[in-house]
Design goal:
By secondary structure, the chain is mainly beta. The protein has strands spanning 2-10, 16-25, 63-69.
């Protein structure tokens, strides 16, 4: 499965702007050049997903949001979630993902903030 993390600027009227995103294809979590490793269902994993560098001035009333999704087509090719070699599947399987929000496995994002 894929994990796509986006950093958003949300305006007071609800308009959302995608500032940057990062992607991790979980079976290549060690290296895109290494041997793919499938995930074990039900087992928790820790992933580090690096977003592309960006900068933004958040105006008064704007909100910072993090969006986590499993697809960003057409920017990234869809993951069929079969484990077969990429580009060889017509079959698509849904993936079920869980993101931990609290406790010892809590998710986090690190943002660097500069004073004006």
């Amino acid at each position: 499965t894929d994990f796509i993390v986006r950093l958003l600027d949300i305006l007071p009227d609800g308009t959302q702007y995608n500032l940057t995103e990062g992607i991790l294809r979980a079976r290549f979590r060690g290296s895109i050049w290494g041997e793919p490793k499938r995930l074990e269902p039900g087992k928790p994993y820790e992933f580090t997903i690096t977003l592309q560098p960006t900068s933004n001035f958040f105006r008064k009333g704007h909100r910072i949001a993090v969006q986590i999704t499993s697809s960003s087509f057409p920017l990234w090719d869809p993951n069929p979630n079969t484990g077969h070699p990429q580009g060889r599947d017509a079959e698509l399987r849904p993936a079920e993902q869980a993101i931990f929000l609290g406790g010892e496995r809590a998710s986090r994002i690190e943002l660097f903030v500069l004073d004006r």
